[in-house]
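=== RUN LOG ===
request id: a7f3
mode: sequence -> structure
chains: 1
length: 470
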Amino acid sequence: MNHQAMDGKTVIIRIELETRLAHFGRAATAIEQAGGDIIAIDVIQTNRDRSVRDLTVKISEVGSVERISDAIRTLPGIKLINMSDRTFLLHLGGKITIQPKTPIKNRDDLSRVYTPEVARVCEAIHDDPSKAYSLTIKRNTVAVVSDGSAVLGLGNIGPYAAMPVMEGKAMLFKQFADVDAFPICLDTQDTEEIIAAVKAMAPTFGGINLEDIASPRCFEIEERLRQELDIPVFHDDQHGTAVVLYAGLLNALKLTGRNLSDARIVICGIGAAGTACTKMLLAGGARHIIGVDRDGILQSDQTYSNPTWQWMASHSNAEGKRGGLTEAVQGADVFIGVSAGGILTRAHVESMAADPIIIAMANPEPEIRPELIEDIAAVIATGRSDYPNQINNVLCFPGIFRGALDCRATVINEEMKLAAAQAIASVIGDELNPMYIIPSVFNTRVVEEVRKSVIAAAQNSGVARRQPRE
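=== RESULT ===
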């Protein structure tokens, strides 16, 4: 286990004390002096000679696992048995499981769920494949598919290391929207092989959630699958970010008395998320967008080897502005960052229009920390949970898939994404203020409002195959 990775976290320390040689107070003092704060004590075993206890310890920024373990080992009569990271304990054996909907108690039950009676169900589906939705798990099941090439801020860590993230995603689907999701981590990063694998497994699922697949490969994979499958395919890193960003921006514009069509918007970081955000804003009516990446402001008269940049260049910067980030933000109303930490400065924000809106979504370090500009920015949002206004995809994907599954949509189109964003924004009413432009992921209204709006948009745009019962 990487002990350094546990610093600043909570660990469980099991110690054994010889009662004639040691007092617990010595251990508590040593832990505190090493930078630990004991927040819980559990007595595991005790007798006249020995006592075994589990100590739940929060490690401060100045403390470390090594310092605490070394301090305990120097104490006479106290034995350090083990130290466990609570996060690692949570992941032991994985975080999800499969449970049967009905128990098998006798031979009759067995014959109905399996052979021989199940054959009649198979024949019914063979005669009418659409019955797979009513007679199998298909109607409520989503595949969470990754190749492990762009996982969180960790980069290309491969399919095995990506599994904990995909398991977590499956948990969120179930917790927030009662969607049964299953992690599928593919041991290939070849575009054609990924497409073939997803198509081959599609009969089992009612929808496909693509996750943590690197740009630009993710664009072709999603587009091909959308064309070749008749179930919704949604790359959450692109569209989930765009939907929640758009929801937050709608409320921020309302607070500052602006219209989307008039707002001057800078998008920094033209990858999967930046491109999806641009498409969402254009679909919503934005007319003044400038895209900035490593080469500076993207120009329509330039040729770029990156097809994503080329698309952005032809759909933004109508005024032909040139330069880098400094020139791009001058006079801008909105900064949207999906790039790298610390690249936006206070001087940049000061050069923007009065009461600027800053949405800095780089993780774990935003493009600029809110405390550096809270006196000059009208609204600030980030991708972090320890600041107000977190732009979090969890607000989007559970409800959007719940709605798409319930109406058996063939795709998740732009109309459905816009509807989802407007639904998220609408959850905040009179309580709207600069510190609260986006609802909490634990707001129970979010999923249902998104679901209803997505179903309506699917029906109005002609992609729904079913009228769900309320």
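=== NOTES ===
Residues 1-7 have pLDDT under 50 and may be disordered.
The chain is about 40% helix and 15% strand.
=== END ===
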